[in-house]
Amino acid sequence: MPVAIITGASKGLGRALAEALAARGWDLVLDARTPGVLEETAAALEAYGTRVRALPGDVTDAGHRAALVAQARRLGGVDLLVGNASALGAEPLVRLEELPLDGLRRALEVNVVAALGLVQEALPLLRAAPAGAVLAISSDAAAEAYETWGGYGASKAALDQLVAVLGVEEPGLRVWAVDPGDMATDLYAAAVPDDDDPRPDPASVVPALLRLLDERPAGGRYGAPALLGGGR
Questions:
Q1: Tens place of pLDDT for every residue, the chain, 232 residues?
Q2: φ/ψ (deg, to 5) at 179
Q3: Which of 19, 56, 143, 232 is the most buried (most CB within 10 A)?
Q4: Counting runs of H as helices and runs of E as strands, what totals does the chain give?
Q5: How far apart are CA 58 and CA 43, in angstroms?
């Protein structure tokens, strides 16, 4: 069966995608920072009859990244690498004049440096897969100027560029960045805790991601709402 590595997989979009893949029979290697929640997620997904390996840790740790890929190798390889782990840089978000530089460094380290590090670790297995793919979760803040979202948006814009270049450098793979749009996630609640407006459940975005896997369009940046509507 195909094997996917998913970071930030214990909750939100990561868990929703993991569940959809488990229902399709994929074997999974899951990452998150909170062991208890990750273990609960893994136990729930094993009910689908798939093999699930849950490794709590921080994606900025090179040893942890190597362990994720090693687990996938034991399951048969890496067919899909999903970079969903993210850091905001400040919680709640603040204007650039107040953004702690250490927070910006953390956002860049998680959202860009660690994302590339995991790709580098997994590349030999992705290249060997029959249909290797990399899926990076981006944000509309990467392309639009929203007050207080500057640090996070800058990190996601850098991620988008890495994805674009990786797609050129690795023509044998499919490499996508996806802006999932608004979602009701813990990340958003931490970013803007005073915003009580209802937002879509992350599970509503999963069909857009599955469409990419099913149809394997050209690499590049996609918006989930357009994918759900039949476009790009």
A1: 999 999 999 999 999 999 999 999 999 999 999 999 999 999 999 999 999 999 999 999 999 999 999 999 999 999 999 999 999 999 999 999 999 999 999 999 999 999 999 999 999 999 999 999 999 999 999 999 999 999 999 999 999 999 999 999 999 999 999 999 999 999 999 999 999 899 999 999 999 999 999 999 999 999 999 999 866 6
A2: -85, 110
A3: 19
A4: 9, 7
A5: 21
Residue 231 CA: distances (Å) to CA of 59, 152, 210, 212, 223 = 32, 26, 14, 11, 9
Distance CA 7, CA 216 (A): 21
In one letter, which amino acid is 17?
Answer: L
pTM for the full model?
Answer: 0.96
Of the candidates 50, 47, 60, 48, which has an alpha carbon nearest to the alpha carbon of residue 29?
50
Active site residues: 152
Q: Which two tokens stand for residue 106?
A: 């953390």
Query: Order of strands, edge to edge, in the sheet holding 52-56?
Result: 52-56, 27-32, 3-6, 80-83, 133-137, 174-179, 220-223
